[in-house]
Design goal:
Elements (H helix, E strand, L loop, with lengths): L2 H14 L2 H7 L4 E7 L7 H15 L8 E7 L3 H13 L4 E4 L2 H10 L5 E6 L18 E5 L5 H12 L5 E6 L8 H14 L3 E6 L3 H11 L3 E5 L3 H5 L1 H10 L4 E3 L2 H5 L4 E5 L1 H16 L15 E6 H6 L6 H6 L2 E3 L1
Parallel strand pairs: 1-2, 1-3, 3-4, 4-5, 6-7, 6-8, 8-9, 9-10, 11-12
Antiparallel strand pairs: 10-11
Helix pairs in contact: 3-12, 4-5, 6-7, 8-10
Length: 328
């Protein structure tokens, strides 16, 4: 057979190959949406996205090569819903949701596109999944800290500041799926069992936050519940605590890194490392309905010694030994 005849026959065979075979030769670009619950200028966004991208790359998914990642982030309810609509309109293969509010917004827009939540306080109570073992819907992912963690917040504040007589738990009612609606009832029960005076401090804006701290003063303690609002305004909350010299315990290390006294909660960045494992499985054909919701790997205690010193507090040595990290 002549050289020209050989390549003519080869080309004819290629035209007759099934589309599935040709598809193996040219990898399809997959689309991944990401919806975070942080202000668009929050520097924490870059850190979380970098971890997501790295973990996806380790699993064989590189942005711009075989996947395209579409990022959106907002802290307000209305803006969050608009961005959820925007992402769903792109018809991505899977969407990563960074908070309970993000999951709620996305589920209002779609019940078919797979959603993987990085953290959700109460995915069953919030209606995101039928059960942790069998989600049976288009959403699955990872839970946040258990509601029982509130008792530990009280214990830690009493341990580091034994003169505190009154406690206030601050949260935004509009973020109830994240914080107040889930953590407050068991926290109030824990306070009652410990004979501790606890007040619920609902905050809707920065003026409300300032008012709560001003009312507490050094004789009071603040527990910041984990919701999208408090996370978005963590710098202002930490600054208010320092200005009014109020001891406070926070739900994640981002608060202590911003200058807060101490935090006790999930290792959120670890969840951002773990989330791509579910994105990978879905992109390779798994159904979100069949992927069980996973629990956090650990709860971490982070203490900021500079903040303690500024408040005139001496951190007990036993707390320093127990801490997962001590910020100098």
């Amino acid at each position: 057979m002549s050289r020209r005849r050989f390549f003519t026959v080869l080309a004819g065979c290629a035209l007759s190959w099934p589309a599935a075979v040709l598809g193996q030769q040219i990898e399809r670009l997959r689309n991944v949406g990401v919806l975070l619950g942080l202000a668009e200028v929050d520097p924490e966004i870059n850190r979380r996205i970098a971890i997501l991208r790295e973990a996806l790359r380790d699993l064989g998914w590189t942005d711009g090569r075989n996947i395209r990642i579409h990022y959106r982030s907002a802290s307000g309810v209305q803006r969050m819903q608009a961005l959820a609509n925007e992402l769903v309109a792109l018809q991505p293969d899977v969407i990563v949701a960074g908070s309970s509010m993000a999951v709620s917004a996305l589920l209002r827009e779609t019940r078919t596109i797979p959603i993987v939540f990085v953290t959700a306080s109460d995915p069953v109570g919030g209606g995101f999944v039928a059960s942790l073992a069998k989600p049976n819907g288009n959403a699955t992912g990872f839970t946040g800290a258990p509601s029982s963690v509130g008792a530990k917040w009280l214990e830690l504040l009493q341990e580091i500041a034994p003169d505190i007589k009154h406690f206030t738990a601050i949260f935004n009612p509009d973020s109830a799926a994240d914080g107040g609606g889930y953590f407050l009832p068991p926290l109030q029960a824990a306070a009652a069992s410990m004979s501790i005076e606890l007040e619920a401090g609902a905050v809707h804006d920065l003026a409300d936050i300032e008012g709560v701290f001003a009312a507490r003063g050094p004789a009071g303690g603040i527990l910041v519940l984990p919701d999208q609002f408090t996370s978005a305004h963590r710098d202002f909350i930490v600054e208010s605590a320092a200005r009014h010299r109020v001891p406070a315990v926070y739900p994640s290390r981002s608060f202590t890194e911003a200058g807060g006294l101490m935090s006790y909660g999930i290792d959120l960045l670890d969840l951002y490392r773990r989330t791509p494992s579910y994105v990978d499985r879905i992109l390779r054909g798994a159904r979100s309905a069949d992927l069980p919701v996973q629990l956090p790997a650990k709860i971490e205690l982070v203490i900021n010694l500079s903040a303690a010193s500024a408040l005139g507090l001496t951190v007990p040595r036993i707390m320093l030994v127990r801490a997962d990290e001590v910020i100098q």
